[in-house]
Specification:
The protein is mainly α and about 45 residues long. The chain has a domain of about 25 residues. Helix content is about 65%, strand content about 0%. The longest helix is centred in the middle third of the chain and has 30 residues.
Length: about 45
């Protein structure tokens, strides 16, 4: 096993990957809401 957890803290890679996933989600959520607002304003859902 080359990957070993250090006793003084959590795994750095898992923290980075969780942070990246959260950043992607936080970036896509407002874009999705903006797209829905624009589509609604254009009458797509009318």
């Amino acid at each position: 096993m080359s990957h070993r957890h250090r006793p003084d803290g959590p795994c750095h890679f898992s923290l980075m990957s969780m942070g990246a996933g959260r950043r992607v989600l936080l970036a896509l959520l407002p874009l999705g809401l903006l797209w829905l607002a624009v589509a609604w304003a254009m009458g797509v859902f009318a």
